[in-house]
Amino acid sequence: MENERLKNLRDRIDKIDREILKLLNERAKIAIEIATIKRAKGLSFYDPVREKNIIDKVLKINEGPFSDDVIKTLFREIVSATLALQESQKVAYLGPEGTFTHLAAIKYFGSFAQFEPQDSIKSIFESVEKGLSRFGVVPIENSNEGTVTYTLDMFMQYAVKISGEIIIPITLHLLSLTGQKEKIKKIYSHPHARAQCREWLSKNMLGIPVYDVASTAEAARQACVDEEIAAIASEFAAQIYGLKFVAKHIEDFKNNYTRFFIIGKSFPGKTGSDKTSIMFSLQDKPGALYNALKPFKDASINLTKIESRPAKMRKWEYIFFVDFIGHIEDEEVKKTLEKVKDYCIELVHLGSYPMFE
């Protein structure tokens, strides 16, 4: 009786799977038709606003048992696969394979984009500006270690826009070929990852030297060829390089997140839940920064980040980077920025993009 019931349930699943496959291919055919229209009109194939709307709609009608996170992941992969049928999306990221930047790129674009590892943040900006990559993914800040100032400096050198953001949790593990602690003679790590595990290392790996490398993925790549080397890296890197866990979750602070910018040559339209990034320089006189920021307060526009960097043109001159809630197409934002410009030597709109939720 139980075997018959099991068979019936499996038959129902098989039938549903056939229907899912049929509907997916039907969806893909419609997407190809849309691609033909977009190509004729010279429209962009990738539309993050449309993608957000698709996912928001399905989340509103999701009744479970799948969680919203699972549904979001599934539909992002469907959108990614469909987009790959329309046009290959080249995405530059900070390599090698297995970095947190690589992971952020996959989570944002889905696994069907064409991911291109770069050896530096500068190379990502260059690739996007020259049109070699459609998009780039760059780290901008970590909740424990602060702003990635080098990324900010690149915005002063390259004509790119911020078209999106994504925030991912950072979990770090000690990995090696064997997974055996007693075989470890040295540890490789990115400096930021090392700093985030300082206390754990001092308690558990005293006397084992730690060497800095360019990324957590590079640490994993070194560890996969020598069983005496351990790497501080992600589970994602462990899967790619065939490493085993020596110890899991070795970061000192568990509430650890990194925010990444998606950079491109343009920015999307309004979604109703947006963020804007600008940079500006000021005249060197008392109250200059106060005057530039006061219009935001007067308009009740929430600033989510402000950072300064040396302008590197004249000594003691700085560029200010500001993120705030709202889109450049919002009337209140337009009026506010016009007032801010009155106090600036130069103001550059870096991009408006859907706020990560």
TrEMBL record:
Pathway listed for it is: Amino-acid biosynthesis; L-phenylalanine biosynthesis; phenylpyruvate from prephenate: step 1/1; Metabolic intermediate biosynthesis; prephenate biosynthesis; prephenate from chorismate: step 1/1
Which residues does the UniProt record annotate as the domain Prephenate dehydratase? 90-265
Recorded GO CC terms: cytoplasm
GO BP annotations listed:
chorismate metabolic process; L-phenylalanine biosynthetic process
Tell me where the transmembrane regions lie: none
Pfam families to which the protein is assigned, alphabetical: ACT, CM_2, PDT
SUPFAM superfamilies in UniProt: ACT-like, Chorismate mutase II, Periplasmic binding protein-like II
Q: What does this protein do?
A: Catalyzes the Claisen rearrangement of chorismate to prephenate and the decarboxylation/dehydration of prephenate to phenylpyruvate.
- This chain's protein is named Bifunctional chorismate mutase/prephenate dehydratase
